[in-house]
Amino acid sequence: MSDFAGMEELLQDFLTESLELLSDVDNKLVELEKRPNDKGLLNDIFRGFHTIKGGGGFLNATPLVNLCHRTENLFDKLRNGELTLSSEIMDVILDATGVVRDMFSYMAQGRMPSPADPAILSNLDAALAGQTPAVAAAAPAAPAAPAAPGEPNWQQLYQAVVVPADSVAQIAGGGTAVVPTSAPVAPAPAPAPAPVPAARDRAPAKANTQVAAPQETTIRIDTHRLDQVLNLSGEIGLTKNRLTTIRTEIMQGNLGTNTLRALDEAVSQLDLLVGDLQNAVMKTRMQPIGRLFQKYPRLARDLARQLGKEVELVLSGEETELDKTMIEDLNDPLVHLVRNAVDHGTESTEERIAAGKPVKSIVQLSARQVGDHIVIEIVDDGRGMRADMLRKKAVDKGLIDSETAQALDDKQALQLIFLPGFSTKDQISSVSGRGVGMDVVRTNIQRLNGRIDITSVPGEGTRLSVSLPLTLAILPVLVVKVCQQAFAVPLAMVREIIPIDPNSIQEVSARPTIVVRDEILPVRGLADLLGWPATQEPAFGVLMQSAEKTFILAIDAFVGRDDVVIKPLQNIRPKGVAGATLSGDGAVVLVLDMEGLLSAESKEKGGHLSPALLDLAI
């Protein structure tokens, strides 16, 4: 039985609000280290702990209240000038916030948290008394429990409702929407507290706990957006009634000009409304990426302190919106990229001084919208990467042979870091060196129909750029035909469609090419990429941009543009296929993953996509 029986709704509201506040406190603590005399920051942090303590009091969570009370008193003395912030006091404060977060994990399981470790309380008391705290205290290990999401700040100037994320698309159907506040969470046994080493020497476990949360099933929506969905739903209902009336007239044999004109107007109106409804529903799923970014300054701070480095994580573009489900799936890749930038990218203090650089390293994490994609960049001003060293590492680890390594240009050599087992570190540490990570990052990004690119200048730094579609729910595509079969290619990659004259195709380096506006472009036959025998000469070419490649995709015909909902294929994921959808006439259309298709072609000449796959997709 839950320790909070009868208070489940109050508990969920408390966790949602308090985790937002705690994430905000973590970020402000990182800022406070840079500006220890900033009274505004100290007041904000004090109020955050005061609010958390008050909510814990309503739930009778005495251990949480006691810990927050001591920490609140410490901030009160700091803001009143009775104490001066030191690195030792900051370590104690950050340990306390980590334990508060661990307590939230217990409470999310319906369990009352255990009292904080006496060493932490003792250090807080020592700091309150003006004494130097001992080494950082032990913190109880949090159970593997779902933590409430770090939603957008609760003080935003709009009302919000919480609805299940997988129910958003059903709202437009009309009727009454039941809005639960949480999903039930099964309690789990509480693990025994385990001691951890001092703050300067230990791995930043609490930072990992902070960002490694499972996917949430609720989403916070601006009520204005929800009202727009409901209004469009009502208008679609009126249009449906109009179509029903016209259908009755047609069934009675009334096929006059006025009836057909009314039918055309009603269908056009329905098409317009459905398009607006799709856009409105997609907007309800969009969340500012700042709710994800806000977790990383603390992560970067803890890791840099462990490594003995001075690193500042600078955020920008936090207001950029992205599909909620993609934000959740981006968490793990971004955690690794931020950690990688701090650990691998930035130099030690001694190295930076020797290179004539500022002691503090700057890592920039930014997001911006480019067309129907979002671009996330992680940029550091560190040592950069040398292509020749990457080639040597890959050969030494047996990942590629020396002949292949020498054939790679510098840009291709940078891609070696994405090979499984590749690591630039010679020694394994608690942070890195095992060659696990970047290959998983690329795999996770590709699962989101995105791509990751890398540029690096030795001595100046590295830039990792992640490009993602704004949403995975609806994908604009161009439907083309080859061998009498329809396929869909992502419209974001399409630049234009041109007719192909067989006489315009020329062989360059044994490959077919076409000159388009003085640009020599390679021709890739879609039938060849699929490994199918061509049934006719291609009539059209789709000029496509894929990552750094521009090419002509030769096709037999094209059907037109469409917005599709991609459905995954059951128990099968062949190279070059992102999923399947249905055309207007009910036929199965495979949605092609062009990056995967081109990658498969570079390894073996077609033959990887069987026509029988279409039968399996049905």
UniProtKB/TrEMBL annotation:
GO molecular function annotations of the record: phosphorelay sensor kinase activity
Catalytic activity, reaction form: ATP + protein L-histidine = ADP + protein N-phospho-L-histidine
Keyword Protein biosynthesis: no
Keywords for this protein: Kinase, Phosphoprotein, Transferase, Two-component regulatory system
Single GO biological process annotation from the record: chemotaxis
Class of this enzyme: transferase
Protein name as it appears in the record: Chemotaxis protein CheA
Record EC number: 2.7.13.3
Domain HPt: 3-107
Modified residues (Phosphohistidine): H50
SUPFAM superfamilies reported for this sequence: ATPase domain of HSP90 chaperone/DNA topoisomerase II/histidine kinase, CheW-like, Histidine-containing phosphotransfer domain, HPT domain, Homodimeric domain of signal transducing histidine kinase
Native source organism of the sequence: Microvirgula aerodenitrificans
